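Protein Record: Sequence and Backbone Structure Tokens
======================================================

Structure line: whole-number tokens from a learned vocabulary of local backbone shapes, matched to residues.

Purpose: to set a sequence beside its fold so the mapping can be learned.

___
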Amino acid sequence: MTRPLHDRHRAVLPDWLALYYRQPIEITHGEGRHVWDADGNKYLDFFGGILTTMTAHALPEVTKAVAEQAGRIIHSSTLYLNRQMVELAERIAQLSGIPDARVFFTTSGTEANDTALLLATAHRGSNQILAMRNSYHGRSFSAVGITGNHAWSPTGLSPLQTLYVHGGVRARGPYAHLSDAQFIEACVADLEDLLGHTRNVAALIAEPIQGVGGFTSPPDGLYAAFREVLDRHGILWITDEVQTGWGRTGDHFWGWQAHGRSGPPDLLTFAKGIGNGMSIGGVVARAEVMNCLDSNSISTFGGSPVTMAAGLANLSYVLEHDLQGNARRVGGLLIERLRAICAQLPVVREVRGRGLMAGIELVRPGTDRANPEAAAAVLEAAREGGLLIGKGGGHDTSVLRIAPPLTLTVAEAEEGAAILERALRTV
């Protein structure tokens, strides 16, 4: 049934538009943590449309809010007052931890990061940006220009001058052998040295946990230590929370809070999960930074009445049902279960993650070399077993990415882990 659609896809869409699986599937509907394809196959969804269906498929509270708002008015633009946009902005500003916060809504994480870069460079009068090696921040011209992951950076051209800093990957690279404290010290020294060779840097942008990079992260406190250096130079800190926000890590509502010793970031970008599938992104920034632009601007689709209604309903559900706590409890059980499964598998180098955000890095047995072929094989075997997962990684795509909706139950976590175990043992 899906083969003709695949042929039509290839005939009219770009060759570089990636599809999972040798025989790509068409997902037709979902409920809770499950989805169904056009052939009637049922899957436990451990990827949520790239961490976007954050709460649950067909969550009644969100679908009702969308339907009711669509029945009133679908679109007006930011040229008119929008009650839903103001209410959601008020809640996000309060939750962000940024003092005197202002919120600007976009339609995606790419656009959110693009806006944050515009604000930071305008505020500082500089086009120089610090980014992390192995990072990913979107697919716009400016976001691709700062992305530190070769597989997702199709051009070396950029409107920005980007300098890359050590620290986003704990278990690989020149500092991997150090203790956590020594690792932070070495990365801070690298940052200090880098700043000695340039001037007037606008901002550092960093994912607290690198998403496309394979769910890698530094030791807690690294960005707090960076912040002390940045403050001395007047450099802004942008935290990219497109994948880590809204309680997914379990321990914190935002990823930056694991690095909060030196205070909150200057700018915070968000997207994906807040809309539970609806297209929402945005930037939170100190008023001084947000208001630095000296020309008019609007957003045609950012802050749409329908997407804002979805975001309000979804955020309310996340907070009222303590989904951050569920991510901590069920995610902790899932990660420990995965570590137990993988302990005796020579193809697995590391199981890492936090909350409902876990990565399994695969290598060629007996070596430390990435194994993208194994990752592709496990992805296929998991689908055949009824489980959808993602993949990513740095130099090679060899990390299995596991990020179920935050309502995941213990029974579903055990079911998914069992399917993954069988898939891993096929390699």
